[in-house]
Amino acid sequence: MLRPSDYSLAFRAALISILIYLATGIAILLKIDWSELIVADSALEFRMANSLLAMRLSAMIGGLALLFFGILREKYLLAVFTILCCWVWVVTIDDMLSGYWRFIQPQMLIGEALIQARPILLFAVSWVMAELHYRKSEVAE
Amino acid sequence: MTASRLSPEELDEIRKIRERLRLGIESFSREGLLFKLAFIFLNTYAVLFIATSTLFPDLVFLSGDLAILKDDYEQLLRARTLVALIAIIFLNIAYFFRVGFQLAILFTLVMTTYYSIDMYVMYGEFIRKTENIFVGFFFLARPLVIASLVYLLIRKSDGLFR
Fold first, then answer.
1. Cβ contacts (< 8 Å) between B83 and chain A: which residues?
2. β-bridge mates for residue A38, sequence order
3. Which residues form the domain of B50?
4. CB burial string A22-47: b at 16+ within 10 A, e below
5. What whole-number distance in Å separates Cα of residue B98 and Cα of residue B24?
6. What is the predicted pLDDT for the residue at B112?
7. Neighbours of A141 (CB within 10 A)
8. Is A87 within 8 Å of B110 when comparing Cβ atoms?
9. Secondary-structure breakdown of chain A: helix, strand, coil percentages, each rounded to the nearest 5
10. For chain B, what is the domain count?
11. For position B72, what pLDDT does the model report?
12. Is residue B74 a part of any domain in this protein?
C-alpha cells in the first residue's frame, strides 16, 4: 500500500486534489437532476447530453476505482497514473475542440465547477505521473 | 567547396540526430512481421481517415435523415482529425527518433479507445443507419486499430509501467 510520507508534499496535494475532484464529481452527478445541468435545443440533443453525462459519470467511477487500486497496490501506481493522465488529457482536448461543453449549463455552480476545475485536475495528474516516472528513473540509475 | 558556417559542436549535434534516425529506420527493418504490419496498418488508417475527412468531407459525414446532426458531427470530426494527425505524427517521430515511443502509443491507444466509445454511445445508432459506406468502414475498422495499438504497446512496453 502507498505510504504518503514516502512522497513529496506536492505529490500528496496533487493526489488529494484528484480524489476530491473525482469524489465530488461523482457525488454531485449522482445527486443532481441532470435536466437542470443540460442545455439542449431539441430532444435529440437532450438525449445526447444525457449519454455524455452518463459516460462522464462512468469514467469518473472507473477512474476512482483505478486510483484506489493503484493506492492499495503501489507497484501498479505508475501504470494507473500513466493511463489516467493520458485519459484526462484526451478527454479535455476533446471537450474543448468538439464543443461538448455547450451541453453543460454554465450558470449552475456545478456546471461551472466541472469546467473550471479541469485545469487543476490536468495539472495534478500530470504532476503525479511525472514524479512517479522521475522516481523510477532515479531508482534505475 | 564552401566552408561550413556551423561550429564543430553544431555539426556534431546534427550528426547525432542523423545517426539516431538511421538507427530508428534500421530497427524498424529488424522488427517482426506482425509489428511491421500493425505499424503500417495504423499509418495507412490514419492517412486514409485524415485525407478523406479533409479532402472529401462529404464521404465521411452523416447524410440523409441525419442532416440535423451534420453540424455537430462535422465539428467533432474536424477536431478529432486534427488530434489524430498530431498523434500519428508524434507516434512516427517517437518511433524513428526513439524518444517516448511508449508514451506515444499509450496516448494514441487511450485516444482511440475514448473516441470509439464516445462515437458508439453518442452516434452509434445514427452510424448504423447511415448508408455511407466510408463512415461504416472507418467505424468498423476501429477494433483493428485498437488491437494494433495494444500489440505495439505489449511489444514495446518494457519498463513503462514498472
1. 90, 93-94, 97
2. A104
3. 33-156
4. beebbeebeeeeeeebbbbeeeebbe
5. 6
6. 93
7. 5
8. yes
9. 85, 0, 15
10. 1
11. 77
12. yes
Residue B157's contacts (CB-CB under 8 Å, 6 or more residues apart) are B102
How far CA A46 is from CA of A118, B89, B121, in Å, comes to 23, 36, 14
CB spacing of B110 vs A42 below 8 angstroms: no
Q: How big is the CA angle at B115 (ends A45 and B67), to the nearest 5 degrees?
A: 40
Whether residue B65 lies inside any domain: the answer is yes
Of B134, B131, B117, B122, nearest in space to B57 by CA: B134
CA closest to A46 among chain B residues: B122
Touching B: A residues 27-66, CB under 8 Å: 42, 44, 48, 51-52, 54-55
Mean pLDDT of A17-21: 91
Domain-embedded: residue B106:
yes
Q: Quick check: is B81 in a domain? A: yes
DSSP state string for B52-82: HHHH-HHHHS--GGGGGGHHHHHHHHHHHHH
B103 Cβ neighbours under 8 A, 6+ residues apart = A82, A86, B94, B160
Say what the ipTM of the complex is: 0.83
pLDDT tens by residue, A27-69:
888 888 888 878 887 888 888 888 888 988 999 999 999 999 9
